[in-house]
Amino acid sequence: MRQPEGFIEADKKNLICRLKKSLYGLKQAPRQWYKKFDNFMSSSGSDMQEIINLKQKLSKQFAMKDLGAAKQILGMRIKRDTKSGTLILSQAEYMNKVLSRFNMQDAKPVSTPLGVHFRLSKEQSPKTEEERAHMVKVTYASAIGSLMYAMVCTRPDITHTVGAVSRYMNNPGKPEMLTSEEALQEASKEMVWLQSFLEELGKKQENNILYCDSQSVIHLAKNPSFHSRTKHIQL
Asked: Of 158, 178, 198, at which residue does a domain stop?
C-alpha cells in the first residue's frame, strides 16, 4: 500500500506500507473475506456431527432450509460420484436454452469449435448504412455473452473461438457474408481430392457441379478471358 500524503518521510519516499488487515473497498477485500470464511467453515466442518450442530445453530438464528447436497447452481448441473471421488459440472440445459434463444436448436454439431478455414477481418464489417441497419437487429453481442459464460464455467475449449468472434462485437458483419468464398474454397478442394481418389480406384467421375452464390467467382467462371490466368488454382 502506497504511503498516503502527509505521512511520507524524506529519507523513506520509496517505501510502502505493509497491509496487516484487509480494508473495505480494496480489490482484494472480497477474496480475503472468502478465504477467512472458507478457513472457518473447513475447520468447523471436518466432522459430520459438527456440521449437523452448526446447521442447527444457523437455523435457530436465520430462516433457512436444508436442501441436501447441491445439485444445481448458476445454471450448472452438479453430478457427484462418491465411489470414484469425482465431481462433474454440466451446462447442457443452459446451452440448450441458448441454442433455442438464437434459433439454432437444429444446427449441425461439430467436434472442433472453430474450423481452419474460418477467417474474420474488419474488412467484412458493414460499410453502408443499409448493412449497419440490418446488423443492429442481430443480437451478436448477446450471443457472445452467452458463450462467454459457458466458456468461463465449463467449456474452456471454446476460449479461442469466443476470443476470435468477440473482436468484432463493436461492428459485426453478416454471418452469411463472412465465409462464403472460403466454404466454397474448401468444398472445391474436397471435390478435387475425391475425384483423384476415385480415379485411382478406377471409378472416374466426370461433370461434377459445385453450386455457389459468390458473384466474383461466378464472374470469373463465365468470363473466358480470365481462364488462362487461373492455372494456379488447379495446382
From this structure: 178
Q: Which residue has the cell 475449449?
A: 157
**Phi and psi based region of residue 96 (left: phi greater than 0; alpha: psi -120 to 50; beta: remaining):** alpha
Q: Cell 529519507 appears where? A: 11
Q: How many domains does the chain have?
A: 2
Regarding pTM above 0.70, the answer is no
90, β-bridge pairs: 77
Same domain, 190 and 157: no
How crowded is residue 178: how many other Cβ atoms within 10 Å of its Cβ? 19
Q: Which range of residues forms the domain containing residue 120?
A: 92-178
Span 73-129, pLDDT tens digits = 888 999 988 889 899 999 999 999 998 888 888 777 777 777 666 667 777 777 777
d(CA 180, CA 211): 11
The answer to whether residue 137 is domain-embedded is yes
| Residue 46 forms part of a structural domain | no
Q: What is the DSSP letter of 72?
A: E
